[in-house]
Structure formats: C-alpha cells, structure tokens
Design brief:
Layout (H helix, E strand, L loop, with lengths): L1 H12 L7 E7 L4 E8 L6 E9 L3 E9 L2 E9 L5 E6 L4 E5 L11 E4 L9 E2 L2 E2 L8 H5 L15 E9 L5 E8 L2 E4 L12 E2 L1 E3 L2 E3 L1 E9 L5 E3 L3 H8 L2
Antiparallel strand pairs: 1-2, 2-3, 3-4, 4-5, 5-6, 6-7, 8-17, 9-15, 10-14, 11-12, 11-17, 12-13, 15-16, 17-18
Length: 237
C-alpha cells in the first residue's frame, strides 16, 4: 500500500513542462504568407496555430498543429474571407462545404469512370482545404514551358486534370495547355496537399477525375477561372 501511495505522489507531483515555441512567417507566393509556430528545439516541427494570409491581412486557412500534424477543426476561406470549408482532422470529415459556382464555364467538372444509373447515389470528390487554399499548392507547381509564347494575349486557356484514387490521394496530375500535355511531379507535394475526400458510389469510395478550367497569366501563373476576377485585378496592379 505504501508503494502505491508513493507512486501516486510521483505521478501527481511530477512537473509538467510546456514545449517552447516560436512564430515563423514564410512567404508562400507573391500574394500569400504562412504564419505558424514551431518548436524551438526542433524548428521543423509545427506546434500551435497556423494561418495562411492573403495580402498579409485576410486569413484563407486557419487551424492548429500538434506534433507536426493537423488536429481539430480547420477553417478555409476564399481571398475575400468567405468561408468555403470546415474540416475536422480528428474525425476525418468535412463539416461544412460551401456551394460551388453555378456558371458552367467557371465551375469545376468531375468525371466518374464507372457506369451508374439514376438510382445510384454518386457524390463528387472534395479537396480538403477548400476550392481556394486547397488548390494553391497544386496550381503553384506549374512552370511555363519555354516553348509557350504569349503572342500578346493576356491569358492562355488551360485545363487541369487531377486523378483521385479511391483512397483519397492525388494519383495523377496533367495540365493541357497550348497543345501540350504536361505531367506534374507529385513528389513535390506534401501528404496533406495531395489529400482529398474521394468520390463515392452508393457509399463506396471510387476513382474520379477533377477537371479545372484555368488560364495562364502574363506572369506565367496558372489560376482557375473561379479566381479569375481576383487575379485580373492583381495582375494589373
């Protein structure tokens, strides 16, 4: 009994050491800045609040890291601060997803390589991170090939095709632009950046393809048409 009491005393009187962290600000691209905390003893490990900010002011992503892993509910917005998605990383589920644009020209398209009828329940794939923040790292990988000229055009049309596996991973990434089919190296993306909620048919995960209408700007940046208005303003500044 004495041994148990001594053990309880050790357990309940042992000091709790909080891990010291420091804030890091990292430029993601010309328009976006990441602000997050890392461990002082290991600056590669994120710990605490994370935000990505558009033009240093508007948060487009906000959440918490614990031991370098995303935890709890994260919130994702567009560049104007409108909520697009909430995702619970602990439960691995989308808790809110804003409706897509109704324009047939601007919205994303989805292809299911399976036969189905009107009686089947088919749900599209969803990018974790929403339709703005979630696709930033993916579109950022595009580099304008040397043999593509602008010919005085402000933008060149492009189509992005993303193959999503039944497991919810980005399996293939192809850009169709100016008669070229460009395969993108997926190893340049992190596990979180390649993560999707897969399409389902009658509750069962299936393979699908996301098709995104895009344009290449004068600066060689690839953007989706759903963000075109914002970028047209940015490019003329």
């Amino acid at each position: 009994m004495k041994t148990l009491i001594n053990l309880y005393l050790v357990l309940f009187t042992a000091p709790v050491f909080a891990q010291e962290t420091m804030e890091v600000m990292s430029k993601f691209d010309k328009e976006h800045m990441e602000v997050f905390r890392v461990l002082k003893r290991d600056v590669k490990t994120r710990e605490g609040l994370y935000q990505m900010r558009y033009k240093k002011k508007t948060a487009v992503a906000s959440g918490v890291y614990r031991n370098d892993k995303r935890t709890g509910v994260w919130h994702f917005y567009d560049s104007k601060g409108k909520i697009l998605q909430n995702f619970d990383y602990d439960k691995n589920q989308v808790t809110f997803e804003a409706p897509e644009a109704v324009s047939p020209i601007m919205h994303f398209n989805y292809r299911i390589d399976e036969k189905f009828t009107e009686k089947d329940s088919v749900i599209r794939p969803i990018k974790i991170g929403g339709r703005y923040y979630g696709y930033l790292p993916i579109l950022k990988l595009f580099k304008r090939p040397a043999d593509i000229g602008m010919d005085g055009s402000l933008q060149i049309p492009a189509i992005v095709e993303l193959l999503i596996s039944p497991g919810g991973n980005l399996a293939d990434y192809v850009i169709h632009i100016d008669g070229l089919d460009l395969n993108v190296n997926l190893n340049l993306l992190t596990a979180d950046e390649k993560r999707f909620v897969p399409a389902t048919k009658n509750g069962q995960p299936i393979q699908s393809t996301i098709i995104i209408p895009c344009k290449m700007t004068m600066g060689g940046k690839l953007i989706s048409l759903s963000d075109m208005q914002k970028w047209e303003v940015t490019e003329t500044n």
